[in-house]
Write a structure and sequence with these properties.
Among the domains are: 223 residues, Rossmann fold (3-Layer(aba) Sandwich), CATH 3.40.50.1460; 124 residues; 46 residues, no CATH class. It contains 17 helices and 19 strands. The longest helix is centred in the middle third of the chain and has 67 residues.
Length: 611
Amino acid sequence: MGAVRLLGLTFCLVWLACGPAIAERRVALVIGNSAYKNVARLANPANDATLVGGMFKKAGFDAVDIKLDLNVAEMRRALRDFGDKTRDAEVAVIYYAGHGIELDGTNYLIPTDATLERDSDVLDETIALDRALFAVEPAKQLRLVILDACRDNPFAKTMKRSVAARAIGRGLAKIEPTSPNTMIAFAAKAGSTASDGDSKNSPFAAALVERLPTPGLDLGKAFRFVRDDVLKKTGNKQEPYVYGSLGGDDLALIPAKPVAAGPQGPQANSQDGIRRDYELALQTGNRDGWEAFLQAYPDGFYAGLARAQLKNVAAEEARAAAAAKARQAEDEKSRLMAERANKAEQEKAAAAARAAENARIAAEKAKQVEEAKAAAAEQRRKDAEAAVARKALVDKVENDKAAAELIAKQPADKTPADGEQKVAAVAPTQSPPSLSPQETAKLVQSELHRVGCLAAPADGDWNASSQRSLTLFNKYAGTKFDGKLASLDALDAIKAKPGRVCPLVCDHGFKADGDTCAKIACRAGYRVNDHNECEKVQDKKPVATREDTNPRDGDRKKGEAVPTGSQAKSAGQIFCGPAGCRPVRSGCRLEEDRIGRNTGLMSGRQLEVCN
């Protein structure tokens, strides 16, 4: 009986020890189809599959199957085998890169040996997306299918339709999974196509590898980061999209790393990690970045700084929305005035424009307040980190100074003892470290850039542009630093300014909008004039010109004949002869000179005939 009890206790201990490992089991199937036999080869899917599969392996997945260039039979076998692995897994992920097609609202994945001469071949030669969802369904916590298959499909262009009305879509169709905690991520929004990009990997795959492995980052937020990255990379031409939903609890593809804590709080290396994550969120500078940071580190020094930065982001969003509303209200008012709408409508539009402008001004002031608070928080962080660095430097200098004093006290003719010789071995050979002129210049340039006085990046070269920027700072800050020199005193003075000091100067056609230059948009029929204002375009009518065929007296050459008839009248009856040109005498008239009598031929000259 004792042996049985011992065996039972051992079994329970083993089961308890293995429980967490089983609960965290994560598996992934990665497929990349590039070498299609009946259409042109795709450049990136095989590369993308290798990259994403490597990411899952580095993330610590228990099983990662990477399959390249599968025909229809191999794809069915891979999905069947993967379905067996998901039965005891908490997280199951399928990533597919290659061609896909949508037929009558259903999505299909295309193997490399597909021909697809007719629309009915889709049912026989492809794999329905539902088959992939069936494979991940046994997973207990997360079921994720990622499709980089929204490319422009060459099969659809040559496929014969058995029914003329059958729909074959561009890209993939929208899908709503029915199982809980199931997500389907498309490389491009339903009905649109994705790009392979110009590099080795597609923009979508590169963003996945960058964002998904972040420890502790909620999967929904991770895919929002992916969306932002792809939109930025493709110039807003490709927008990834996620279908399905997760529960209320945050769910990360990679669990957050535990923070090691001792009796006095977190260890130094964990603080370094928090600092690095804070700086990463600071570089991102958007709402999602700060929310992800606060989710991972809700308490502590850096959490307080992050909340100040998040409020600054919210204030900027409110300012931008108010500015856009004010512009719309002003445009509406101008439109009604141009169309000469009734007075009531114009007054209503004017009131709306005034209210929107007041809201914009209030939002701008709130933004400046939050911006100052965020700058002060950032300055506190820099001061705290600089204090730690200064303390370490002071400790080192004091130790070196004590060692130097010990050496100086030794008599010149005294041979140092063994203990003293050890002190001499650590004596400093040079003065304590200090900032070089180039390092000082780079720090001053960085601060001048922050307060809006320097547009160029900080490079440590204190050139004419940097000197002008410091002079500009003196003008608006009321200081008198030498512009030819980047000094530590100037650095401290600039650091003390929480926000912009120098006014924002924009190029022609742009106007200052907070801390950025926004392009001036004029309505139809108007253009930006030299004063950066919208003015109505004036229609320029062509002006007809003609040469003066009737020169006045003094402008005509001697002996030149004058015009006759109406032309002579318009010329004021001017007669030109060998002696020059003069008005026709009173009682006289001009007649054309004929060549001989009764010939009817004119000589081209005129005679003054008097009665």
